[in-house]
Design a protein that fits this description.
447 residues; 1 helix; disordered N terminus
Length: 447
Amino acid sequence: MIACATAPEAAAIEFRIEAQTRGDAYQLVTSGNEVLNRNRLHQYLGLSLYDIEGSGESRWSFTSMFRFDVDFGLSDAEIERVPTAGRSQMSIQYASLEGHDLLGGLLEVRLGRQLLADGLDYLMFDGAVVTVNSPWYLGLEVMAGAEVKNEMWGINDSQLEVDGTRYIKGIEENGDKATLAFGAALVTRNLDYSRYRLAYRRYFSDGAVDQEKIGGTFHQRIVEGVDLSGVMTWDMFNARFERLQYGLRVRAGDAHEVEAEYVRTSPSFDGDSIFNIFSSLPMNDLNLRWRLYPGKNDRLYAGGKLGLAGNEAYQGDVLYGNVDTMVIGWGAMAGWAHGFGARGIDGRISVDFSFDGGYAGDRLLGDVSGVWAVVPREWELEARLTALAFDDAVQENLHAFSFGYQVGGRYLIDKRAAFALVAEHNMNRLQTQQFRVFALIDVDLWL
C-alpha cells in the first residue's frame, strides 16, 4: 500500500511597486516683470509588501510612498531671498506596518507614518493607531503620535500642519516645537446601512494645548435610495462649533438622483496663532444638485448654491464705517458627459458651466473636454478648452477674461505602465501668455 500526502499550498510575500515620474516646465512673470523659470521633476515611488507572514491570510502588510522633488529653474538669488525655497526635497509620504484580524478579529494595528482623515481634521503623523473590535458592532480606536512638520526632519513634505503653526526656517529665531497628538474614537462596524463615528483629538506642544476637538460623523440609509450623512465638530479650545455639515441624497430608480447639503463652517486655528485676534462669524452654504442618467453612457446634472456670511459686531467688537452686516453669494452649475462605445471606453466628452455671483463679484466658467481612444486601453488622445470671466467686487481693477487649452495623449503598456504628455496654454490680460508642458510616467505592477 502506498500512502500519498497532499503538499500544502505554497504561500509567499506579495510585492507591489508603484512609480510615477512627473515633469513640468513653465514660466512665471512677477509684478516687477521678472521672468521666473520653473523646470521641475517629481518622482513618486511606492513599495508595498502583503502577506508578510507567508500564511496566505494576509494579516500583516507594509505600505509606503516616497517622493523626491527637484527644481532645475531656481536661481541662487531666489534661494537666498526665499527661506523656504530649495532645489531638491526628499520626503516620506507614508510608511506603515499594518496588522488586520489579529487575535481572531479582535485587534487591528497600524504603526509608522500615516494619514488620518475624519470629520475632525486631516493629520499626517508618525505614531500608532490601535483598534479594538467588540462583538457588539462597535470598535474603539486609539491614536497617538507626533505631527509631521516640514522643517523638523528634512524628509517631510506635508500641507496638513495645524492651521496657524507653520514655522519658517531662517525667519523665526526659535526652532519649531514638536506637536504631539492623541485621541480616541468610537466607531460602528459590520452594519450594512449605518456608519457612525464619535472622535476626540488633542494637539499640544511645549506644554500647551494647540487644539482640542470633539465631533462625530454618520451615514445612514433611511430606505432604499434615501441616505442621510452628517459631520459635527466642536472646537473645545475656542468653545464653538467649527463645522456642521448635513446632506441628503435621494435616488429615484436608475435615472434620477438629487443631493441637498448644508454646510456651516467657522475658522479654527492653533491656540497661540495670531489669526485668533481676528473675530470671525460662521459661513453658511446651501447646495442642491440634480443628476439625470438617461442612458448607460450619459450623465446630466444641474444645481445651485447659496452662501451667507455674517459681519455683525462680535463679542464686543465694534465695526466702523459703512459695513454690510450680512453678505450673500449665489451660484449655479450644469453639465453633460457622454461615453462612446458599447462600454463607454472608446472615448468621452464632457461640458461643464458654472456661475458665481453676489457680494464678492461675478465669475463665469465654461469647460469642454474630450478623450478619444484611438486604440482602446492602449492609445488615447485628449483635449480641453476652458474660458473664464471674472470681475472682483472689492478690488476695482481686478477683472479679466481668460482662455486656455490643453492637448495631449497617453500610451498604456499592458495595464501596468502609462506614459502621458500634455501641453497647456493660457492667456489673459493679467498674465498675457502662460505655457506649460507636463510629462508623466506611471508604473504599477505586482511581483
